[in-house]
Amino acid sequence: MWQTGLVDFDQVYERFRLPVWRLARRLTKTEEEALDTTQEIFLRVWRGLPGFRGEAKLSTWVFQIAWNHLRAYRRKMGRTLQIIGEDMSAAQETIDSAVDTGPDPERRARSTELLDRVHEALGKLPEHYRVVVWLRDGEDLSYQEIADALDVPIGTVRSRLARAREALRELVES
Amino acid sequence: MDEAWGEILSRHLDGDLDSDEELKLAARLEAEPSLAAELEGMRRIRRSVAALAASERVPPELDSLVDPLSRGKPDPAALRPWTRWLATAAAVILAAAVIIEVNHSNPGPNLESMAKLRRRSLPAEPTERFTLAPLPTSSLAPEEQHLGVSDRLLANPAPEVELDNPLPLEVLGPLEKGGVPASEGQEDTSISLDQVKAKSSAVAADKDAKKGENTRPAAAAAMGEVDRAPRREDEGDARDSGRGAALQSWEAAPPMGQAQLFVFIDGKSAWREFTPSATCKPGRYPVRIVVASGAVREARPVGGAASASPSQRLCAAGLILDLEIEEVADGEFPAEVVVEPRGSGASPDR
């Protein structure tokens, strides 16, 4: 096991590979881009671990690295909105595995439709709304953790989250 | 819904409201069913986002991409930028040091040393016999070495010889006429300047005639060679008589200079002098030759000076066809034809 600083990289990777991947998947266009960015994020984590002294929560620190890299990547790629529909196969797999698998076919269909809509609506949200709603509802981070990770005041997190949810609801119900 | 109530609904979902705020919200929800419907919509979406997150799977490729980091062996791309720059700089410095050391311990011949050798007039007598000569890198002592062609080319740059009025191949060249034996006129290399001018004017007149121009009698008359550059009354006659005059002139006094064929074989150079059977523009012409049964069977120009036209290069290559070089084994070799100006009688050693 490779030890660096207070935490070893294997543990960090094991704990955050899925959350970081999910965030990358939400903020990039294709699965390939998500893979590249996730790899780059963990490379940065690996480089930064020797200097990590535990002043911040590990999750906050990792998400901060992830967000900074993803934001820079998106800026570099010149996109502000994710274009939905270009890589639908992977997205569809996600939705398929998330739908209600109960015996009621009508309920299953409704669940699939809702997930489709939510997935699509998420892609249409501006990225600073999308990341807040994802970190809160997808990753279950607290307001404070989100504020630390995004380096914004906690009040901003509250207001952005409220607007993001409202926008998402309108998009889904429209 | 106003923004403030939107934020309260959102915070309610996350359990971020204090008890007072919760009470206020409960009363409002009771009084306003549409607000309650909005809250329900938000809750549904929140669950959907969570479901999406829970259903996401990491692709197996990710582990293999990140695996080198886990093993503490980052791939080269994982190196810090300054370490990459450091490695590159070290490689460049090492390469430069090697080059300097090699050059210092084994200096090659320079122009000065070769010029000294040349001044000593070491044996390089021009003969008709084909001679193999070692290059300066030979194990022989410098004073025992024959000068190779590379030395001569380096120490004695090619003279930029330009005839005032070069003799065009199309008129004088025996390549059109069918070739002239090398022995013919070999002794007579002393053609006068007047004769050259005469041929030149005839050629010029011939060219004019070809272009359909009437004549350039004034120029020809000024040269005093009107008889050799006949006035042309009609175009066909002009061409025939112009060419005829030129060929007549060439046969009377073949405009030959000296020429050398250099052959480069396995790090050695060899040459022979010969009297060309046709006149080409002086200069150096790289060629590739095919030797078979002691003679040049094929010769084709390769590159050459930008100033040399294709016809000049072909002319030079044509000079050495069937030239005897018995000491050279059969095969294909790089070579060079050096055509000296007529009357110079120059050998490569001079």
Can you walk me through this structure?
The complex is a heterodimer of chains A (174) and B (350). With 174 residues, chain A is mainly α. Chain A is built from eight helices and two strands; from the N terminus they run ββαααααααα. Chain A has a two-stranded antiparallel sheet. In chain A, helix 1 runs antiparallel to helix 2 (31-48) and helix 6 (127-138) crosses helix 8 (154-173). Chain B is of the alpha+beta class and 350 residues long. Chain B has helices at 3-13, 19-31, 33-55, 60-70, 81-105, 111-119, 149-155, 169-172, 174-177, 193-211, 217-223, 235-252, 310-319, and strands spanning 131-133, 259-265, 268-274, 283-292, 295-301, 331-339. Chain B is 46% helix and 12% strand.
List the helices and strands and how they pair.
The complex is a heterodimer of chains A (174) and B (350).
Chain A: E1 3-4, E2 7-8, H1 9-27, H2 31-48, H3 58-77, H4 88-98, H5 105-124, H6 127-138, H7 143-150, H8 154-173
Antiparallel strand pairs in A: 1-2
Helix pairs in contact in A: 1-2, 1-3, 2-3, 3-7, 4-5, 5-8, 6-8, 7-8
Chain B: H1 3-13, H2 19-31, H3 33-55, H4 60-70, H5 81-105, H6 111-119, E1 131-133, H7 149-155, H8 169-172, H9 174-177, H10 193-211, H11 217-223, H12 235-252, E2 259-265, E3 268-274, E4 283-292, E5 295-301, H13 310-319, E6 331-339
Antiparallel strand pairs in B: 1-3, 2-3, 2-6, 4-5, 4-6
Helix pairs in contact in B: 2-3, 6-7, 10-11, 10-12
